[in-house]
Amino acid sequence: MEEKEKGLVEYLGVIKKRKWILVIALLIGFAVSLISVIATKPVYRVESAFEVGFIQSGYIVECTNMAQICRTANFRNKIRETLSLPAGEDVPLNAKSSGPVIYLISNTQFPERSVKILNTAMDIIVREHDAMYKEAMKPFLSEIDSYRRQIETLRSGQDEVSRMYLLNLRMQLSQLEKILAPYRTTRVLSPAAVSEKPVRPRPFTDIAIGLLLGLLAGLFAVFSREYLFPEKS
Are 67 and 201 in contact (CB under 8 A)? Predict the structure, then answer.
């Protein structure tokens, strides 16, 4: 125990002896991190969300696949064409899925531009999914329309057979409507919005990291100077 205390006292003595090396390292770490914070242009997070539609066979597009599609070069090209952007212009866009909800994300120095990109991306997706949804729903809508026309025709019938057939048609229509109730097309949950504060730089965090690195570098320099290059007596 005494040896440990003696060792600790020795280390503290070394630090005290070489304290200016440590102070200089801390100042350098602080200065570098401060310059980095000042020089870095603010980067904002732009985010939007949509919910993938559901049809008889399942989701219009499998949710994990939908997130992957949003990250493809082909999808970025569709955005460029819609916005009339040059072929080589960057389209900052990322996507992640949480169940049927897909989040489109862009960390950018130009938030207004990214808002247009994300909203355009959702417009493209909703338009394509609407076409797929309508195509999948055609047979059901045609069947519903047929039931309704027959019901309208039989309403004037007074005989027992007509009334029974009318009741049966209404039951079948009700069952079909219940089956179709969960079906929905893809919808926008939240249009693109810019974060109130930039995600980068983070002044307090960046400066704290700079000080920590300066402290570690300073301690390394202090003990290196003391034990690797000892002063000759």
Answer: no
Residues 6+ apart with CB under 8 A from 129: 52, 53, 60, 61, 185, 186
Are residues 144 and 210 located together in one domain of the fold? no
| Residues 5 and 72 grouped into a single domain | no
Give mean pLDDT, residues 1-16: 69
What range defines the domain where residue 30 resides? 1-40+201-233
Averaging pLDDT over each range in 44-58, 158-172, 190-204, which range is the top one?
Answer: 44-58
First to last CA, the chain: 30
Do 103 and 53 lie in a common domain? Answer: yes
Same-domain check for residues 209 and 181: no
The count of domains in the chain is 2
Q: Which helix (H) or strand (E) holds 104?
A: strand 101-108
**Could you report the per-residue pLDDT of 79-137, keeping only the tens digit for each?**
999 999 998 888 999 999 999 999 999 999 999 999 999 999 999 999 999 999 999 99
Q: Do 167 and 96 fall within a single domain?
A: yes
Identify whether residues 123 and 140 lie together within a single domain: yes
Where is average pLDDT lowest: 163-167, 186-190, 197-201? 163-167
Placement of tokens 């057939």 in the chain: 165
Helix then strand then coil, in percent of the chain rounded to 5, is 65, 15, 20
**pLDDT for residue 173:** 85
